[in-house]
Write a structure and sequence with these properties.
Chain lengths: ~180, ~650
């Protein structure tokens, strides 16, 4: 009996895979409760992607509502998201700060040259340490941070026009109207 | 008229596939010889009708029939003829038809070259392939028909995606699909063997050449894809761990394990269960790859039009084919038995380790590819897992494989002496260590580079010494050519493929470890450098007319130590129909280095952002792949597989003689 059980393993593993694939078909990007929401954005100091001489810290943005967008040149979903970000940045609603996550400087710079730059500035997180502090699962992810430096919202996955109009923009407006 | 003819052919092919999938298999169990005898002619008929359908689609593209929706989305009257033909498989529906065409080709080939097989086996093998064919033909007819008309017809087409307008598009998909679909033969053989409960050396011998040929095509297909990405995407990368690349790489890894495992089953009768399982997994991963690419569950640079209905269909089909075969496996495999025993130190053990490592490597790639989907299914959003994961996990798994790959041929079957292996290899090991030391002091900047170079030196040295040893082992005075001919081709195939791996590893190591890339903003007359080369921006032209694009072209003069080496002309093209910009890099290929120049974006007052790269040993990556594939070809063409056929033919002739 035990011998036969071993031969069932491939079948069971495949069945489990099918369940995930099935759910995957009907799913859309969704939001997750993050333990970081409502907490102050973890402090860090990183060099900027475009200029190694300049630094960036979240406290530089104190007093503003801003977006921290985690991206990387190796991430296809970020490339999908990029045109949307560029369009959004043209509307000048909030400053968008990029966090180039686990990337190489030249590759990141190149992607921006190729596809345009929606960011006010980009912090370079080559070894992904800041990403870990922020609980980044992967890229892209976007954090909405308020005037006091508290994380108010986190979106996992590309920002779509729908996410922007239905979720992000109302939250941004609300935060901007608060003192 | 022609689209309707194509549509009708697909329906007829489906009818024949139904006959092929039902009667021969049923006949093989009820011993109905007539039903079994249907297999060959029906396979031929299916091949004819699918090929007619394929020819119809090609003809729609050639004659610019934009009343066919698929042609209108993937072609344009300005498109050159060869791209119009390649456009046939430029989108979802057409590449599906290509898939089915390949399947019918393989089925027909099996029906032709299976004269030496028992009738029962042929009926089952062709029947299983017929069943797979039913699934794909239905998929095409019900969810993605390439011949669907559009009323009213378009005036002109939407054009083939400019990224796909390249020589690579003409050869890469057919090669890749030949490989993918080719594993269906090994799969069908495995299922047939499970149905009959007969898994023996003969079964392994029949499967081997088919598997080797499929594997060779897959190797070439992946190589073509990588080679294409390298020059087409314009940023000098050659492998991105993208979901679609992984989809082709996973069957390759398992296929590699399979061809080794088949060798053990044929020679020693061991690993039977294992080999059957690998055959099932290799083809399952090909199907899974198709699912991932077509269903749009994963975000990818290759993503075609996505449609959840299609995804659901493929998933159900996957569940039936893979689930069914794994269930059959769970039911029949326990009775197969273990086969020949072997000691802890033996070639069997090494091959088992190699198999397990390759399978685990495939599993980690699968995990990395599916991880975003798992998270999504658990409600954690869509994300990408990128090269950082794959580089960290995949490389350590491959290192022992590379180490053992060289040693394997030195170890005897059944039982080997560890001390003897050490004695035979100690000088080569020392030489490798010395090489590593020299590398560390001269050209290799990091420990990883030293290690990669040392592994490749180890593979090349040990493989070469093994080949020399075998050549010496012949009667004195025999000419070299005869000495080479004396050894079976399967044996040379192994040596060549292993040497190819050595060359490939060296290429990858050198590119990863020592490439130099430099992004600068340049005006005409400026000079920049990469490695020991300097690049002078000498000229810039605007508004160059191509057949269906307008280009800007920069001219760069490359020199080294003051001597002019070459002139390079990267372009920036705008494809007029889709208003899409493309970067066309200029590449100067060499034996030990490639130079790579691409134009970025125009900056202020006539400056251009330019990327210049010095990429050492890139050509070795390509050469390695081609040599590996050639090894597969040599092994597949081994006399042994043909001899069996001749012997059988002679027997038939004798039987036909009047007594």
């Amino acid at each position: 009996m035990k011998r036969i059980a071993i031969f069932l393993v491939p079948l069971l593993a495949f069945a489990a895979l099918c369940v995930f694939l099935w759910r995957g078909l009907s799913l859309t990007p969704s939001e997750v409760p993050s333990p970081f929401i409502g907490k102050p954005a973890p402090a860090f100091t990183l060099t900027q992607l475009t200029d190694e001489q300049k630094n960036f810290s979240p406290k530089d943005m104190q007093g503003k509502v801003w977006l921290l967008n985690v991206w990387a040149s190796w991430c296809p979903a970020c490339r999908d998201e990029h045109p949307m970000l560029i369009e959004f940045s043209r509307q000048n609603v909030v400053p968008i700060v990029g966090l180039d996550y686990r990337d190489q400087r030249d590759k990141g710079t190149e992607m921006l040259q190729e596809m345009g730059n929606p960011y006010q500035l980009i912090a370079f997180d080559g070894d992904g340490r800041v990403g870990i502090d922020y609980g980044v699962y992967g890229a892209p992810e976007t954090f909405l941070i308020d005037k006091q430096g508290v994380i108010r919202y986190k979106h996992i996955g590309p920002i779509t026009p729908e996410v922007l109009t239905k979720t992000l923009l109302p939250k941004i407006k609300e935060l901007q109207n608060n003192a | 008229m022609i689209p309707e003819l194509g549509n009708f052919s697909i329906m007829l092919a489906l009818c024949l596939a139904l006959v092929l999938g039902i009667f021969p298999i049923a006949g093989s169990f009820s011993r109905n010889v007539r039903w079994m005898a249907l297999a060959r002619p029906v396979a031929a008929g299916q091949f004819v009708f699918v090929t007619v359908a394929f020819a119809c689609l090609v003809s729609c593209f050639v004659t610019n029939d934009f009343s066919v929706a698929y042609v209108a989305t993937n072609s344009n009257s300005l498109l050159p003829l060869y791209y119009r033909i390649a456009g046939t498989w430029g989108g979802h529906e057409g590449s599906l038809l290509l898939w089915v065409e390949m399947l019918s080709v393989w089925t027909f080939a099996v029906s032709l070259f299976s004269r030496q097989l028992p009738e029962q086996t042929v009926a089952r093998v062709l029947g299983v392939m017929g069943l797979i064919s039913i699934g794909f033909l239905c998929f095409m007819l019900f969810t993605s028909n390439p011949f669907e008309r559009m009323l009213p017809g378009a005036v002109d087409g939407h054009d083939l995606n400019p990224l796909l307008q390249d020589f690579g598009m003409i050869v890469h998909p057919p090669m890749l699909y030949m490989g993918y679909v080719g594993f269906s033969v090994a799969f069908a053989f495995a299922i047939a063997a499970l149905m009959g409960g007969q898994l023996d050396a003969a079964w392994a011998r029949w499967s081997r050449p088919w598997t080797l040929v499929a594997w060779m095509f897959l190797t070439l297909g992946i190589f073509m894809g990588s080679f294409w990405a390298y020059y087409e995407l314009g940023w000098g990368g050659w492998w991105f761990w993208d979901a679609v690349e992984n989809a082709s790489f996973m069957p390759w890894l398992v296929g590699t394990a399979l061809i080794h495992s088949l060798a053990v089953t044929e020679k020693r009768g061991s690993f039977k269960n294992w080999t059957v399982l690998l055959a099932i997994i290799a083809f399952s991963l090909s199907l899974l790859g198709t699912f991932l690419v077509r269903s749009g569950v994963l975000t990818s640079v290759h993503a075609f039009a996505t449609d959840p209905r299609r995804g659901a269909y493929i998933l159900i089909f996957l569940a039936i084919v893979i689930g069914g075969s794994l269930a059959l496996y769970a039911w029949r495999a326990p009775k197969v038995g273990l086969g020949g025993r072997f000691a802890l130190v033996s070639r069997e053990s090494l091959l088992l380790v190699n198999n397990v490592l390759l399978l685990v490597a495939a599993a980690t790639v699968l995990l990395g590819t599916m991880y975003p989907l798992f998270l999504d299914a658990l409600g954690m959003g869509k994300i990408s897992v990128g090269p950082p994961y794959f580089d960290t996990v995949f490389v350590p798994l491959m290192l022992p494989v590379l180490l053992l790959l060289a040693v394997g041929p030195f170890v005897r079957w059944k039982e080997a002496s560890f001390a003897e292996v050490v004695r035979r290899l100690r000088w080569l090991a020392l030489a490798t260590l010395i090489f590593a030391g020299v590398a560390a002091l001269s050209f290799a900047p990091s420990p990883l580079t030293v290690m990669g170079a040392a592994f490749s030196a180890w593979i090349l040295l040990v493989t070469a010494s093994y080949a020399i040893e075998r050549l010496r082992h012949a009667p004195a005075g025999m000419p070299l050519w005869q000495r080479i001919r004396r050894e079976p081709r399967g044996y040379w195939g192994m040596i060549v493929a292993h040497a190819g791996v050595g060359i490939f590893v060296l290429g990858v190591t050198m590119v990863k470890g020592t490439e130099v890339s430099n992004d600068v903003s340049m005006h005409i007359g400026d000079t920049t450098s990469a490695g020991s080369y300097s690049f002078r921006f000498v000229n810039f032209e605007d508004n160059i007319q191509g057949p269906n694009y307008i280009a800007k072209r920069g001219t760069f003069e490359v020199s080294r130590n003051g001597n002019i080496v070459t002139t390079m002309t990267p372009e920036k093209r705008n494809y007029v129909v889709q208003h899409m910009d493309m970067t066309i890099a200029a590449i100067d290929r060499g034996f030990t280095r490639d130079l790579y120049v691409s134009l970025g974006e125009p900056g202020i007052n006539g400056a251009w952002v330019v990327r210049v790269q010095h990429k050492p040993f890139v050509s070795w990556i390509w050469a390695g792949c081609i040599i590996i594939a050639f090894g597969g070809f040599l092994a597949a063409s081994d006399k042994r597989y043909r001899l069996a056929k001749k012997r059988r033919a002679a027997e038939l002739e004798q039987a036909a003689l009047p007594v």
